């Protein structure tokens, strides 16, 4: 059977990771969360106390960093950082880090390697437009800002984070702005992507919609 490659893009809180994980399980393929990779680099920069203007130190840090996914968890230099990367301190800086061309260059290369030779569903901001331009299936998930902020807020509170709804709205709007206006590979729907607005749809509905697209193509 030929490999299936599914690219899922969209703004923060549109449901990309929740939906991609379920689709991966249903199709028995690998899920790769590229946002987690940008978050892991950002976490390391914060922990080391490096300022975002200190380009030389960030370049050096990139060369000394190892990122891996094992059983759905993300490892930064062999440490499981799956929870730490979700903190608001990381969210508030990640889009500035992800706008740096040399950071993208390094992570995109890693992402392409991870996706070669196997069937994957990969989510992010530039997967259909850049990382996996030849993907068989491209999905662009959207939802209203209010709905996305509500989902993210619920998720953060359930995980015990001390955040307000306003913090989350500000974070989402700020990241949307930086992600869609940066010079290198901004967040944008690929011309050949299918757009799904998830605002008033259940997770199951969206998963089923994607699976039926996969079945049509495959
Ligand atoms: O997907 P998630 O919201 O966790 O991504 C965190 C951030 O990483 C995004 O807001 C964006 O700045 C960056 N990102 C990116 N390109 C990707 C995936 C994520 O620039 N492919």
UniProtKB/TrEMBL annotation:
Residues the record lists as binding ATP: 10-18
Domain Cytidylate kinase: 6-215
A single Gene Ontology CC term: cytosol
Domain of life according to the entry: Bacteria
Localization annotation: Cytoplasm
Enzyme category, top tier: transferase
GO molecular function per UniProt: ATP binding; CMP kinase activity; dCMP kinase activity
Reactions mediated catalytically: dCMP + ATP = dCDP + ADP; CMP + ATP = CDP + ADP
Pfam families, sorted: Cytidylate_kin
GO BP annotations listed: nucleobase-containing small molecule interconversion; pyrimidine nucleotide metabolic process
Keyword Cytoplasm in record: yes
Signal peptide: none
EC number: 2.7.4.25
Entry keywords, A to Z: ATP-binding, Cytoplasm, Kinase, Nucleotide-binding, Transferase
InterPro entries tied to this protein: Cytidylate_kin, Cytidylate_kinase_dom, P-loop_NTPase
Record-stated family: Belongs to the cytidylate kinase family. Type 1 subfamily.
Record's protein name: Cytidylate kinase
Phylogenetic placement of the source organism: Bacteria, Bacillati, Bacillota, Clostridia, Eubacteriales
Gene name as annotated: cmk
